[in-house]
Amino acid sequence: MNAPSSSRQQAIRSLIERFIAERLATKLEGLADDDPKRATLLAQYAPDVWLEDAARRAGQIQAVTHTLKAIHPDAKGTNLYCLPNSLPQHALVGSHCLGDDFAGDVVGNAAALDVYKLLKLEHDGQTLLDLLLAADADAIAALHTDDEQARSLAPAFTGITRARDGLASHTHGKQLYWLVGDDPRNDEHYHLLAPLYASSLAHRVYQAIQADRFGEPAKEARQARRDKQFHPGVIHEYPDLAVQKLGGTKPQNISQLNSERRGNNYLLASLPPSWQPRDVRLPIRTRDGSIFPAFGKRPAVAELVRSLRDFLLSGPPANVHTRNSRDELLTELIDELLLYAVELWAFEPGWSAKPECNLNRAEQLWLDFRRAEHDAIFASEWRRMEWLTEVRERFANWLNARLVSKLSVGDVENSYWVKKAGGNALWLDLDWLNRAWVEQFEREQRDLEAEHE
Amino acid sequence: MSELPSSNGLLIVPHLRVQNANAISSPLTWGFPAISAFIGLMQAVERRLEGRFALMFDSVGVVCHSHDAQVTGGYQRALRLTRNPVNERGETAAIVEEGRIHLDITLIFGVSGYSEDGQPDPVQGDWQKRRTIAAEIANLLGSMRIAGGSVFLDPQHQPVLEPLAQGEERSKQFRRLRRRWLPGFALVSRDDLLQNHLQQLRGENASADLLDAWLDLSRLNLRVQEARPASESQPAKVEWRAQRVVPNGWLVPIPVGYGALGPLQAAGCVANARDGQTPLRFVESLYSIGQWLSPHRLRDVDDLLWYASAAPEAGLYRCHNLYSQTLCTDDME
C-alpha cells in the first residue's frame, strides 16, 4: 500500500499480532510441553487464521449502547447503537448527556467477545473499530498481507455496529402505551413505547458510584472522617442505594459492560421519607411537662435545628434570599410540629386526662383536642384558644434555647442576628418566628376548630 | 402541551393500600413507582369507565402516607426476591430481580365534568350523587393494579368528588384538603434544580453535564465544616457535615418519561409488538429530580398534579408537574 504510511500499517499490524500472541500465551499456560493440543492451538492462533475466524465470529456480536436483555435475560430482539450526540438533546438526563466519551457495550455470543476486544485496540487514541469504520487504508491493510483478503475482512468487522435486520421487541421486553392524542379512549391516539436498557449511561453512573464508594480519594476522605481529621475532599453518599443483579450467575450473557459490572446494576433511591406511627409515644410522662424536649430529639427535627443554626451562623447577607432560606427551614420545622400533632391525634382521645399525665394544660388542649367531646371544662378552655398563644411561645422559647445552647459565647456575640436583635438575649428575632408561626400553624388550628364545631 | 390541563373538579381516593407494587421504576432508580405508572392508571380508569360519567381525567397527584420496601441490608440494599415457578420445560425460569414495595397512598385526580344529553355536569351535582360517583370509581380502582401491585380500599376513608372552588375559596378549600393528607409526602418535580445545579457545577468545572448535576443532587455530599485550627491547648476540631442544595429538601432522582432512540416505526413493522395497529418506538428512560413534600408545603392543588405530554417529532414523551414554576413566580413578586 502507500509507502509513506507503511510504518503505521506495520504498527497496527504488530498491535494486532501482539494481541493474538497474548491470547495464545494464556491458552498455552499450564499445558505440558508434549501435549498434542499445543500444535492445534499454535495453528489456530496463527494471525491470518485467527483473524479470518474472528471476522466470521464478528457476526455473532453487536456493538450497542442500548440493550434488551438487561430488561429480561430471555428477551430476544432489537438492540441499538445510538451515538449519544446523535440523540435529541433533552433538558432531562439520558444517554444524550454522555457526549463523545462513552463506553460502548457488546451483546451476542459471549464466546465472540474477544473479537470486540480486538476492535477496541487503540492506535494513536483511535480504536481499530473507529479506523475501520473510517475506511482507514493502513488499518485495512494491516488485517492481511493480501490486499484483496484484507478488503474482504474489513466489512465483517465493521458490521458489528449495524443494527441487525428486522426490528423486533419481545414478550419479555417492556412495551407501554403512551397517549399522543387527546382522547385516552381512542386506540389510535397512542404510540407503543419499547424501552431499552441504556447500558452506556448505566455504565457511567456505575463508574461514578464505584469511584465515590471505593476510589482512593474517597477512601482517604472516609478515613479522615473516621479519624476526625481535616481533609479537603468530599464524601459522596448514596442513601438507600440498591443493587440489582442482572443475569444472575452469568452476567456475560446480558452484555459485555454488564459483565464488567459483575452483573451489578445500581439503583438510586426515590423513596419517600418514612413516617412510622410506631415510633410515636404518647406524651404521658414528659420531661418538664412538655413535648418539646422529646420533639427536639426526633432525628428530622434535630437536623433541622442544626441546619438552621449553621445557616444563621454562616453570616448570610441580609437579603430576600436569606430570608427565604431561613423561612424555609423554619417552615419545615413547623411542618414537623404539625406532623407530630397529627400523629398524636391518631390516638384514642382522652389520654391526657390520665392522672399520671404530666403534660402542661396548653399542650393537652392542643394534642388531645378531641377530649373536648366528652369533657365540658376542657371544651370551654379549648374554645378560648389561649392555649394556642401559649404553645406558640413554648415553641419559640424552646427553639431559641436550642439554638443558643448549641453555640459558644463567641458565636453568639459574632452572630449577625444577635447584632440585629440589639442585644436581645434571644438571638433569634421573635417577630419573624411569630409571623411564620401564625401563618403556618394558627391557620391550620383555626380550620380545625371550624371543622370540629 | 406544556400546560396543566385545567380541571373543574377533584376526585380524591384516600388511603389506597397497594401491595407488591413494582419498586424498580427505571434502570437507574427504585423506591417508588414511576409517575408514568399513575398517569397510565388514570388513562386506564377513563377507558374502563367507557363514558359512564361525563368526566374527563386530566391529571393526577400522589401522596404517600407510608411505604414498606421489600429489601434487605443497610448501607447497600439488596432486593428481597420471590421464588418463581419453573417454565414449561420444567427448567428454572431466568431470575429477573424485581423490587417490591407496599404503599399507602392517596390519589388526587384533576377531572373535568361536562354536561351531556341535557344532564348536568356531574362535578357540580349534589353531594350524594358525587359521593356515589366517587365510590364507584374507587371500587373500579380497587379491581385494578397500580404499578403491578394489588389495590385495597380502606373502608374507613371515603373517596370524594369535589368541584374545585375559585378565587379565595379555592385556597381555603385546598387548606382543608391538604390537612387530610397528613401525615404524608407528595411528589413534585424539581426540573428547575437540575438546571440551576448544572449552572452552579459549571462554575467549578466547565465540562460538567446534566448527569453530573443529577448525581450530585441524588446523594449526600459530606465536607469538613467548622474546622478549628489546632492550638497549643486544643487539637483541631473537625466536623464532617452533609450539605444539601435545598436545605432539608427531600430530593430524589426520578424517571419522568421516555426519549426516542430512533424514528417511529409504522404499526406492524416491529416483530412481537403488543399489537399490530399501534406505531412503535424504541425509547430509553429520561430522568429528573423530584421532591417529597409534606402536603403542608403545597400552596395550591396545581402544585401537586402531574400530567403527560408527547412531542413525537422531538422524540420526547414525558410527565410534567409545575410546582417549581409557581416557585419562580413567587420569587419574582
Textual characterization of the structure:
- Chain A has 453 residues and is mainly alpha-helical.
- Helices cover 49% and strands 9% of the residues of chain A.
- Chain A contains 19 helices and 11 strands.
- In chain A, the strands form 5 sheets. In chain A, strands 1-3 form a two-stranded antiparallel sheet.
- In chain A, β4 and β5 form a beta hairpin.
- Chain A is elongated and about 105 Å long.
- In chain A, 34% of the residues are buried.
- Chain B is α+β, with helices and mostly antiparallel strands and 333 residues long.
- In chain B, strands 1, 4, 7, 8, 9, 10, 11, 14, 15, 16 and 17 form an 11-stranded antiparallel beta sheet that branches. A two-stranded antiparallel sheet of chain B has the order 2-3.
- The longest helix of chain B has 16 residues.
- Chain B is globular and about 90 Å long.
- Classes of the chains: A mainly alpha (453), B alpha+beta (333).
- The interface between A and B is large, with 111 and 112 residues.
- β11 of chain A pairs parallel with β3 of chain B, so a sheet runs across the interface.
Give the helices and strands, then pairings:
The complex is a heterodimer of chains A (453) and B (333).
Chain A: H1 6-28, H2 37-44, H3 47-57, E1 61-64, E2 66-67, E3 105-108, H4 113-119, E4 122-123, E5 126-127, H5 128-133, H6 137-141, H7 147-158, E6 176-179, E7 190-195, E8 197-198, H8 199-214, H9 216-226, E9 235-237, E10 241-245, H10 256-260, E11 264-269, H11 292-297, H12 299-313, H13 320-345, H14 361-367, H15 376-384, H16 386-405, H17 409-414, H18 416-421, H19 430-452
Chain B: E1 9-22, E2 24-26, E3 29-30, H1 35-49, E4 55-69, E5 71-72, E6 76-79, E7 100-113, H2 127-142, E8 145-146, E9 149-152, E10 160-163, H3 167-180, E11 185-189, H4 191-204, H5 210-217, E12 220-228, E13 237-243, E14 250-260, E15 280-293, E16 306-311, E17 316-321, H6 323-332
Antiparallel strand pairs in B: 1-7, 1-9, 1-10, 2-3, 4-7, 4-11, 5-6, 8-9, 11-15, 12-13, 14-15, 14-17, 16-17
